[in-house]
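Structure tokens please, single chain.
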Amino acid sequence: MEYMLITLAFSVLAGLLMSRVAKLVNLPAVTAYLIAGLCIGPFLLGRLGIRGIGFSTLEDVDSFSIISQGALGFIAFEIGNEFRLRDLKSMGKSAITIGILQAVITTIIVDIALIALHFFNPSLISLSSALTLGSIAAATAPAATLMVVKQYKAEGPMTKLLLMVVAIDDAVGLVLFSISFGVATALETGAISFIGVVLEPLLEIILSCLLGVVGGCSLNALEKYFHSRSKRMSLAVAFVFLTVGISLLEFTIGGVHIGFSLLLVCMIEGTVFCNINETSEEIMERVDGWTGPLNMLFFVLSGAELNLNVVSNPLVLSVGIVFILFRSLGKISGAWLSCKMEKTSNTIQKYLGITLLPQAGVALGMALQARILCDGEIVRNVVLFAVLVYELVGPTLTKWSLLRAGEIKTEGRSNARKPNVKDNKPGMTIN
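Here you go.
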């Protein structure tokens, strides 16, 4: 236990120190935390085998997974705060349309590319794995996106739309993966399961939404009995942890697997709470302040989980490069087309797709499930390679896009040791 605490402290310190280095070259803090995790992970510093200093094995990293799950819960809870009725009235329809359409287009484009690769060289990838990877391509990482938005205090129509779209991605990605994975399994077994393809994913979405609604309403009901800021914040924190814990439960009823989507549950909980509670904005701000170290740990641990062994496999590199190139094409072109259909501004049409490139936890979870396919290990390793690239490059691209869109400003306090700056001034830089 004592070594676990030392490891956690060392992880935070590594993230903090790397963030200083990243600041010198204008990299987002998220990228710094990921690189810090990579440095103290099993493939670099962890090789020394010194307990408390780094992670010796991937199993060591996995032993801290509860922290990652908790952090994801808070990230989703905060994203739910973006779904306020006043914003939904103005861009709710656009967010839903763009969220669904760009995910579907991405899946189709990646499917076409990987199926063509299969027919060109069947030894590289099977047809079932090609279909599965296409659906995994739809998933976007909300955590990295939100952290970039928070760090640079991005604000504007594209930022609001972006946060809504990445939230919708989880539900859309779940449906697309379930359908594609069901078809892929049928190709290998010769039997299509209605329960696996339709019923289970539908139940997961419905039950996740219901649990989120119950959580949001319950939090609002109990919050009225507490008046101090610290107690109300503590109540919100407790509810997020409770929701995360329940979301991780799985059980089977009558041969039907019942589970929840952690991201969807916590997002709905945050959405419901922020729309029915008058003081939700103040509570959200205090929760956000409390979760800073937790979010940092999440990305450091995510970096430590990045498996560098995948880059030594030529087969994984070949399929992985095709996957990355065509997924990027799908996200950018899909976002552009759907934004054009919704008649958004030229700026949003141009840059939104780039901000949707980061990919992490949700995709890895899907890839883990796909390991039962005949070459499922290829699917897992290709996704691991893609995550390695996207997690290191994606946050920087998100920052660049938000800068080009004019939604990152130099307002606010960039240094706690200096007076607050209220107005933009010539010569100021964004750190």
